[in-house]
Amino acid sequence: MKRKTTIVAVILTLIMTFMEMSALPAALFCNVKIKDIEPIYITLMINFLLAFAICWACKKFLIKNWRFGLQFKGILSGLKRYGLPAVIATVIVTIAFCIGLTPFDNKPTIWRVVIEGIVYYIGVGIMEELYLRGLLQNIIEKWFGERKSATLYAVLIASVLFGLGHIFGALGQPIVTIIAKAVWATALGVYFGAVYVTSKNLWVPIILHLIINLCGIPFCFSTSNQYPTIALITCLISYILLGIYGVHIIRKPNIDNTKRIKEDGETI
User: Fold this and answer.
1) How far apart are CA 267 and CA 39, in angstroms?
2) Predicted confidence (pLDDT) per residue in 68-77, tens digit
3) Cβ atoms 161, 136 nearer than 8 A
């Protein structure tokens, strides 16, 4: 039963990864134009909803004992304990984007700002944390078993894959931007993964993921899709520091992460 559960979890991870990176199947039937919102955002959000439905069904019927950590208890304490660095980094990076994209040459409707700058990123945060931390990171940790640094290895491997995944979304950008995005996404993955491990609550990295993504709102007010140099450098430095912080909190001697695989052989 444990092996069957893990196999289903692996398949679900692959399905959700494919759905996010390809926008399929929604891209086959959805091309909705609302106000000045780019249709691709509507398509992606519908695909997120389909992926969430598949994930819910698997959890309900096939992997009932798999514990994502989506309980409400511990959200506030987790955010208070680990969220301040993310807020500070977001403020700094947002300022860098505003400076780099000035003068703004686009006047979006409030609908575009809300959908493309906030609602879409809520979906991104939930989607990526579900399959990267809630599924993949836990799967890798289970594979390492009771090894001393199993949790750290799981966080690092999942984070590297998270970073590599951002290469596809950056295609068409200058090579420096692509490399920088892969590096800082890996660092952010370490931060999110560490917060998930130490808070034992998936909602905490989901919310922090959303907060960090809010720095993209200035792009709604610009026709450019290129990263300004000042923003590129600021993102790289800020997010690498968050990654270092993630390694620090996961390696604290008072946190015994190797004991997370417990009840019924499933991760909490």
Assistant:
1) 38
2) 999 999 999 9
3) yes
